[in-house]
Amino acid sequence: MGHKRVQKTDLRLRVSSVRAKDRVTVPVVGEVDSATLPRLRAELDTAVASGAPSIEVDFRRVEFCDCSGLTALLDARARALRAGSYFCVRGPVAPVVARLFQLTKTGPSLLKRAA
After folding, report:
1. DSSP states of 60-113
2. What is the number of other CB atoms lying within 10 angstroms of the CB of residue 45?
3. Nearest 5°: phi and psi at 41?
4. CA 82 to CA 100: how far, in whole Å?
5. CA distance 14 to 52
6. How far apart are CA 3 and CA 114, in angstroms?
7. pTM score
8. Do 68 and 99 contact (CB within 8 A), yes or no?
9. Which residues have CB under 8 Å from 41's CB, separation 6+?
10. 24: closest CA among 59, 65, 58, 69?
11. Dmax of the chain from CA atoms?
12. Which tens digits make up the pLDDT trace of 23-75?
């Protein structure tokens, strides 16, 4: 009674977006799964809707990502490409995320290529 309950998703995922010139960067920290997915999806929607020529999702500090997170990334990428924007995931990614990308063969289309 009278206690404020903090949702676990608030502690497991931090996501935001930063616009600098022609690029929107979406830094993601924590775990991406069905419980935290709405926050990631909302930020990706905002990034794509911005109309920025380049959208980079920074996954360097993501500890876990399940298939729902992968689907959100692929959906955002498809919408960005239709809008004429470049879209990528910046790494290096955690081994568990790299394995997800490897098993689904999505790494080549999502991960940023070295210059």
Report:
1. EEEEEE-HHHHHHHHHHHHHHHHTT-EEEEESPPPHHHHHHHHHTT-HHHHBPP
2. 14
3. -60, -40
4. 25
5. 22
6. 49
7. 0.87
8. no
9. 72, 76
10. 58
11. 56
12. 999 999 999 999 999 999 999 999 999 999 999 999 999 999 999 999 999 99
Query: Which among 48, 66, 95 has a CA at the least distance from the CA of 57?
Result: 48
Give me the pLDDT at residue 7, please: 43
Please enumerate in sequence order all residues whose Cβ is within 8 A of that of 107, keeping only pairs 6 or more positions apart, or say none.
98, 101
105: buried, middle or exposed (CB in 10 Å: 19+, 13-18, 0-12)?
exposed
CA distance 104 to 70: 9
For the record, the structure tokens of 80 come out as: 């960005």
Pairing of strands 23-32, 18-20: antiparallel
Q: What percent of the chain has pLDDT over 70?
A: 89
Q: Alpha-carbon torsion 31, 37, 42, 45, what sign? A: positive
How high is the pLDDT of residue 10? 57
